[in-house]
Each structure stands twice: as structure tokens, then as C-alpha cells.
Amino acid sequence: MKLHLHLLSDSTGETLENIAKAALAQFDDVETLRHFWPMVRSEAHLERILQEIAQNPGLVIFTLVNKEVRRTLEARCRAMGLPAIAPLDGVSHALSGLLGQEAKARPGRQHILDAAYFARVDAIQFTIAHDDGIAAEDWEEADILLAGVSRSSKTPTSIYLANRGYKTANIPIVIESPPPRELFSLKNPLIVGLTTSADRLIQVRRNRLLSLNQAPETAYVDQEAVAREVAFARRMFADNGWPVIDVTRRSIEETAAAIITLCNERAAAQRDA
Asked: Where are the extended beta strands (E) located within 64-106?
């Protein structure tokens, strides 16, 4: 099937894109042609978009707080016989009932420059500056420290966690180069070991070497050497009582979600204590 999907937002549209992506993931064999319309805040702008929708009819999903613009969109979609969905309406109505107040009709309020926003920026800067074992003297400031062998998704997972507001450092575990002593005396950060199957690791490493135009057959991808490397890291994690996450079949988002759960459980235990 071929589906025209029109996404209209009065802000950046990031929330809308994530909703559409999550919903489409539940369907197979659908060719989706996305028409993305951010910053829709006037009827004149909407009118130009409606012409495009008429030429490419399909599903319309929107997050618009301006009542006049919203009414115009809904009326014109009804006239064209097209479904127009506002996915946040149900949540907003439920919150309004529970909180006893009307929602503020202000576009883009989730992007307000508040303390949480600047904390997230700070987390991203910290994470970039503490990638791949750099600046061990600052690790105590981290919220999370990821340890794992080369190509076990440490850096992308760290960046994802930073975007969620967690200061994240990471360190590669290398047999020939033991980690600094600071790693074993940290108090503040949650240290998490990332591991993966040797076969998967070899595949990822070989692809990495090919992308760099390097010889694809080295000790870096030798079956026995990689198996020893993975076993060495696992022993280190076990000896220090660090939680371990196997990333073999996990996406970056799934790995990060598991780590955030560990952080929440740790925080709850500390509160109870």
C-alpha cells in the first residue's frame, strides 16, 4: 500500500513525528509518503497546505492549539472525506479533568527554555567531553558510566541518554590496557556494563573496518581474541557487582530505556534507605 501522511504542527513537529513513527511501526508493507508541515500558525499558511493535501489525499495528523486554524483544518478535511486526527486531545482532556484547569493554548510550550532544558544541554556537553574514557578525573560528576568492549554501542547509547538529561561517560574495556583506578572507587555514577555476543561483535567490527578501507581480517575480529575480550569484560562486571545489559538484539533506545529503569530503581532504593 501507498499512504500519504500529512503531519501538521504549530511547533517543531518533533512530538508528532515520534507518534506517527510509533504507530506506523505496527504495520507491514506500507509505503509512506510523509508530508511534514511544522510551524503552522496562520490560516494563510494552512490554506497553502490544504491545497497540497487535496492533491495528495491521505491521513492528516495534527497538533494545533489555535482554535480557528484547527476548525478550518477539520472542516476542510471533512469536506474532502479525509480523516484528521489530533493524537494529544485525549491526554489533554484527561489532564484537564484531573487538574481542574484548562490547557494553555500556547504552541511549543514543551520547548520552553527552562531549567530542565539547560540541564539537558549541560548533560550533552558533559557526555561529548567524556567519551571513550576521556577525563577520568571528572567521572564522579557523571550520572551514568557505561563500560564495554569496543563497538558495544557505548557512544550512541551515551548520546541518547544525554538527550534525556543524564550526564553519561563511557570507557572501553581493553585487556591490554586496564581501566584507571578511579573507575573502581566511584560513588555517584551508576556503572553499567554493556556486553554482546562475540559473533555479533565480530560482524559489527568487520563492517567498521570495511567502512574505513582497512584490512577486514585482523586480531580485532579474530574469533578467539574477541571471545577472550568479551569474557574479560564480563568477569570485570561480575567482580565489581555492576549491572550488565546484553545489547546483542537491543536497539539503542531499548538499551537506554533499560539503563534509565536501573537509574530509577537505584534512586528509589536510596530514598527508601
From this structure: 84-85
Joined grid coordinates for residue 219: 586480531
pLDDT tens per residue across all 273 residues of the chain: 789 999 999 988 888 998 999 999 999 988 999 999 999 999 999 999 999 999 999 999 999 989 999 999 999 999 999 999 999 888 888 988 888 888 766 665 555 556 777 888 999 999 999 999 999 999 999 999 999 999 999 999 999 999 999 999 999 999 999 899 989 999 999 999 999 999 999 988 888 888 777 766 777 888 899 999 999 999 999 999 999 999 999 999 999 999 999 999 999 888 887
How far apart are the C-alpha atoms of 164 and 252, rounded to whole Å? 13
d(Cα 125, Cα 219) in Å, to the nearest integer?
A: 34
What does the alpha-carbon distance between residue 252 and residue 250 come to, in Å, rounded to a whole number?
7
Strands 2-9 and 168-172: unpaired
Residue 161 CA neighbour count, 13 Å, CB half:
32
Count other C-beta atoms under 10 Å from residue 149's C-beta. Answer: 23
Q: HSE (CB half, 13 Å, CA atoms) of 246?
A: 9
Which residues, in sequence order, are CB contacts of 162 under 8 Å at separation 6+?
120, 123, 124, 126, 127, 128, 168
Burial 174-201 (b: 16+ CB within 10 A, else e): eeeeeeeeebeeeeebbbbbbbbebeeb
